[in-house]
Write a structure and sequence with these properties.
- The strands form 2 sheets. A 6-stranded parallel beta sheet has the order 3-2-1-4-5-6, with helices on both faces.
- The chain has 2 domains: 160 residues, 3-Layer(aba) Sandwich (Rossmann fold), CATH 3.40.50.720; 120 residues, N-(1-d-carboxylethyl)-l-norvaline Dehydrogenase, domain 2.
- By secondary structure, the chain is of the alpha/beta class.
- Helix content is 54%, strand content 14%.
- It binds NADP nicotinamide-adenine-dinucleotide phosphate.
């Protein structure tokens, strides 16, 4: 299949590489020329704009940052919609507000483009391995068209419901992972400040009800003090903001998410925004009076 890919960052680069490895003809665009180089070297074609990508393909995927970025590449000057034609399917895999995804779907449909929201979970590791969990909102027909592309990038591919449903699932995912990273950091900091080896505590917890993938993977990276992103803290702040905005629109009480969102605000405010979200451990250490950190 001819597939376009827009946005070649931590996630987008390996996802596009997996499409190539799956035998698809891939056309890419990134706003910085150097981001395109690894894909061109692997056999992808380069395009001069999102519109030029859309002209060459049947399915166009975006993996950028937030809703204004998706709007820009889809509906902006030289955006995908300017090359609109019947049958084109646009898939956004970034994490954005469900309401923004529904709005984009309606505006793109008015131009003849069927739009899917298809955010992912599984991190950079899952993007490289092609084992992402993909949560899809939109029509069954568009889902069927895009499915061969999803199959190269993910393992657990769920058509959750209509437009916006994929982003609702992703926001729910970010409640669990945002709170989870914070609780793992709290537990390891608690162990260390109690004078007990946090590595042994993690090992003990892994066999019981406290087990989680976050304790296993993120917990190990906390012990290694490997704060290289991964998933940047400002992105997790964005996602907790999506959760809180949606809760506000719905009049929902999400007390644990609200407290967690404040911690991610504080991470960005304390200069940790470009570090991985596990650097929340550093924030807890500072708040607990740690004298030095690395
Ligand atoms: P990233 O490394 O910052 O990559 C985002 C890419 O999008 C960058 O290359 C950026 O270009 C490009 N971009 C952003 N805004 C753009 C715009 N307006 N026009 C053109 N290009 C634009 O971020 P990432 O970690 O890959 O995350 C991408 C999306 O996936 C986000 O929505 C994030 O929440 C979600 N996500 C991330 C993870 C993870 O573990 N990293 C996991 C699940 C979901 P520049 O390089 O020029 O800035």
């Amino acid at each position: 299949m001819k597939i376009g890919f827009i946005g070649l960052g931590i996630m987008g680069r390996p996802m596009a590489l997996n499409l190539l490895q799956g035998g698809h003809q891939v056309t890419v665009w990134a706003r910085r020329e150097e981001s395109m180089q690894p894909l061109l070297a692997a056999g992808a074609s380069g395009a001069a704009s999102p519109a030029a990508v859309a002209e060459a393909v049947e399915v166009v995927v975006s993996m950028v940052a937030d809703a204004p970025d998706v709007e820009q590449v889809m509906l902006g000057e030289l955006g995908v919609a300017t090359a609109a034609r019947e049958g084109l399917v646009a898939v956004d895999m970034s994490t954005i507000r469900p309401a923004a995804a529904r709005d984009l779907a309606a505006r793109l449909l008015a131009k003849g483009i069927d739009f899917l929201d298809a955010p992912v979970s599984g991190g950079e590791v899952g993007a490289i391995a092609g084992t992402l969990s993909i949560m899809v909102g939109g029509t069954a027909a568009a889902f069927a068209t895009a499915r061969p592309a999803f199959a190269c990038m993910g393992k657990n591919i769920v058509h959750v419901g209509d437009s916006g449903a994929g982003q609702v699932a992703k926001a729910a995912n970010q409640i669990v992972t945002g709170v989870g990273v914070l609780t793992v950091a709290e537990a390891l900091n608690f162990a260390a400040r109690s004078g007990v080896d946090p590595a042994r505590v993690r090992e003990a917890l892994l066999g019981g009800f406290a087990y989680s993938k976050i304790l296993e993977n993120h917990g190990q990276r906390m012990l290694d003090r490997n704060f290289k992103p991964g998933f940047k803290s400002w992105m997790h702040q964005k996602d907790m903001n999506i959760v809180m905005q949606s809760a506000h629109e719905l009049g929902l009480c999400l007390p644990v998410s609200a407290a967690t969102a404040q911690m991610y605000n504080a991470m960005v405010g304390s200069g940790l925004g470009e570090e991985d979200s596990i650097a929340i451990l550093k924030l807890l250490e500072r708040l607990s009076g740690a004298e030095s950190e690395s």
